[in-house]
Amino acid sequence: MQRKLSLSLLALSALALTACATPDAGKPPMTMGGRMAVASLTPTQGNQVRGLVMFHAMDGHLMVHAKLSGLKPNGEHGFHVHENGSCASTDGSSAGGHFNPDGQPHGPQQTAHHAGDLPALKADAEGAVDQKFMLMGPTLGQGAGNLIGRAVIVHAQADDYATQPTGNSGARIACGVIAGH
């Protein structure tokens, strides 16, 4: 049963990662061929957030596609890669702090920031997210910025991108470990 579940997750991940590289109408296709990774997010105790976060290394950056449900409708949520690849605790604390191999302050993408600081997730009226963005710096499987084996965390509140070192984004409501393919 475990093997069937793993193979199903792998197939779903591959399909989802293909969607990551599908160009939007009117835009040229993106170059394929880089490493891929996925995190299957499950809720922490008392929460309902579930989904996938797909990573695709291409052309010197990472494309990220977050597809989640169970969020606060029309809410904004902090979203980070954390240092430990563990979601064993009921509150997500086993994931540790934000992934920060370069010792940078917490902040938004356009300034100095942790390698694990990601753009906010913005849920629709049904509490779902289908969001894509690009990261510069983090990698899949190489160097100090390697995200594989770390945890992705969704937080209950918006990230203020100012409070150090966390962004004051509240409780951890979903967690998933990034697995490479």
UniProtKB/TrEMBL annotation:
Source organism, top-level taxon: Bacteria
Molecular function via GO: copper ion binding; superoxide dismutase activity
Reactions that this protein is recorded to catalyse: 2 superoxide + 2 H(+) = H2O2 + O2
One Pfam entry name: Sod_Cu
Record-annotated Superoxide dismutase copper/zinc binding domain positions: 49-178
Keywords, ordered alphabetically: Copper, Metal-binding, Oxidoreductase, Signal, Zinc
Ranges that cross the membrane: none
Signal peptide: 1-21
Region listing for Disordered, in residue ranges: 83-114
SUPFAM superfamilies: Cu,Zn superoxide dismutase-like (SSF49329)
Documented EC number(s): 1.15.1.1
Top EC class of this enzyme: oxidoreductase
Cofactor info, note text: Binds 1 zinc ion per subunit.
InterPro entries hit by this protein: SOD-like_Cu/Zn_dom_sf (IPR036423), SOD_Cu/Zn_/chaperone (IPR024134), SOD_Cu/Zn_BS (IPR018152), SOD_Cu_Zn_dom (IPR001424)
CC cofactor: Zn(2+); Cu cation
Family assignment from sequence similarity: Belongs to the Cu-Zn superoxide dismutase family.
Role of this protein: Destroys radicals which are normally produced within the cells and which are toxic to biological systems.
Full protein name: Superoxide dismutase [Cu-Zn]
Native source species: Paucibacter sediminis
